[in-house]
Design goal:
18 helices; about 40% helix
Length: about 500
């Protein structure tokens, strides 16, 4: 069970709840005295309100209603918009008489008729409301449903989706077959993981969370699947320099350099660790590589590794509590020996890049090495490295969130599964999902900078989950600060402005 600080409040901004858990919230609300009819009325009213405010000039609205509760929300929105003076048409997927429960009640309160899906007047409409299927859908759309979705996308009209775009799995973010491409999605109470995980995030457009009146106690029925990665998640644990501190009290990071012609990656990581606030950072490696480093760095220190002893004597220094291995390290026998020395030294470790080749297909052995050394480790693979490390151990249908959590539990380390929807996961079930990385962050060396930021925060004593989540968010914001055309070398310097904004208050 995720051991987050007990002081954290419930947050409609941060908490992500899976569709299966949200069904428990709805059931709990009814138990606590709020009827399903009331919740549906409130949901439909929220949809109608957002439609009217976001598209003020759209007078003709086409509502696509499905055969379940999502369709019921659509009928309520249609009735509200009609009462507000809009022209409204409802295209119903299925038979009106087949609707059940609250959805049937909502349809009964819609006094106008409905049209067949094949007759949906897309040319007439100025706005389309997609209320076909909700977040719990896990099968591909076909037949008339698929045809209606494809017609909506092809219409060129703005689309407001209810809960999730129809065809999207709200738990995984996967498009299971044809999927609506929405401009805005209005969801209720909390976001779902699928609103953030790709391709869901791009299919949802802007996501608006509406409060539909669930009683406070209803949310206690659901387990939080993950949290949105924002400063509110980790700001209380972020290290603050003390006026009576010194460089070693702010942590010393050792970064393994790698060979002569592969120094850039480790140098990026070392520079980022220093910018992230570590009091001291030392690049350790063979003399030929250090000569290259010496031409590029000033504040980062250099230490030659003895040919036989490696970096073990240096890591034995009690002032060095954090080490980073992987960027440009190599995968030969010598590199494997250096990595083993790191594990033997214990402490806090960031493992990246070549580590996942060294332990390719052997995640259990990596976990054993971490445990035997008494290390607290953070792993930072991208999707390709993750697949190399895990081999065939992941279910092919598992979401990115599920895969990161499973790997973290298996290895016994915090896993940062990188990408535009980076997931941070811990063995006890904590997870965060980021959505702030710009597209131009996908550039050579950017991952090395992320590893360095994480090491710098760990060195200052930040807990692993919070350090990794903060590093991911800072990394994305630094890219935004650097701007389009940035390269990895620009990111450490851009951190200065981002960190300054943190000091100024909530972001």
């Amino acid at each position: 069970m995720c051991s987050l600080p007990k002081a954290w409040p419930e947050s409609p901004v941060l908490e992500l709840i899976a569709p299966s858990e949200m069904a428990k919230v709805d059931a709990a609300a009814v138990t606590l005295g709020v009827s399903g009819e009331t919740l549906m009325e409130n949901a439909g009213a929220a949809v109608a309100d957002i439609a009217a405010r976001r598209w003020r000039d759209a007078r003709r609205v086409l509502v696509l209603a499905g055969p379940g509760n999502n369709g019921g929300d659509g009928f309520v929105a249609a009735r509200r918009l009609l009462a507000a003076g809009h022209e409204v048409r409802v295209a119903l997927l299925g038979e009106r008489a087949a609707l059940k429960g609250d959805a049937a009640g909502a349809a009964a309160r819609w006094d106008d008729g409905v049209v067949e899906p094949s007759d949906a007047p897309f040319d007439w409409a100025e706005l389309v409301i997609d209320a076909l299927f909700g977040a719990g859908l896990s099968r591909p759309l076909d037949g008339p449903a698929a045809a209606l979705v494809m017609a909506a996308n092809a219409s060129g009209k703005p689309i407001l989706a209810v809960d999730v775009p129809s065809g999207l799995d709200g738990a995984s973010g996967r498009a299971v077959g044809p999927c609506v491409e929405a401009d805005v999605t209005v969801t209720f109470i909390r976001r779902k993981p699928g609103h953030l995980l790709l391709p869901g995030r791009t299919l949802c457009g802007e996501v608006v969370v509406a409060d539909i009146g669930q009683p406070d106690g209803a949310l206690s029925a659901a387990k939080v699947a993950a949290r949105l990665n924002r400063p509110e998640l980790w700001r209380a644990a972020f290290p603050e320099p003390r006026i009576d501190g010194h460089k070693y009290s702010r942590g010393h990071v050792a970064v393994w350099s790698g060979p002569l012609l592969a120094t850039g990656a480790s140098r990026l990581a070392a520079t980022a660790a220093l910018r992230a606030g570590a009091g001291a950072v030392t690049l350790v490696g063979p003399r030929p590589a250090l000569k290259i480093h010496a031409a590029h760095v000033t504040a980062v220190m250099l230490r030659e590794a003895d040919q036989k002893a490696g970096w073990a004597p240096f890591l034995a220094d009690r002032r060095i509590g954090t080490w980073l291995f992987g960027p440009g390290a190599g995968t030969d026998e010598e590199a494997c020996g250096i990595l083993d020395q790191g594990f033997s030294a214990g402490g806090r470790a960031v493992l990246d890049a070549d580590v996942f080749t060294i332990f390719g297909g052997r995640p259990e052995e990596l976990g054993a090495a971490i445990e035997d050394g008494g290390c607290e480790a953070v792993l930072t693979p991208h999707e390709g490295e993750f697949a190399r490390l895990m081999g065939e151990r992941m279910r092919p249908d598992a979401s990115k969130l599920e895969r990161a959590l499973a790997a973290s539990a298996l290895i016994g380390a915090t896993v940062v599964l990188k990408g535009p929807d980076t997931v941070v996961a811990t063995p006890d079930g904590c997870a965060s999902i980021a959505d702030n990385a710009p597209a131009f962050l996908a550039t050579a060396g950017a991952g090395d900078v992320l590893a360095g930021i994480c090491a710098g925060l760990l060195a200052q004593g930040m807990p692993a989950f919070e350090a990794a989540s903060a590093a991911v968010w800072l990394h994305g914001e630094a890219a935004r600060e650097a701007g389009r055309g940035m390269i990895a070398d620009d990111l450490p310097l851009a951190l200065r402005s981002v960190l300054g904004r943190l000091d100024d208050g909530p972001s």
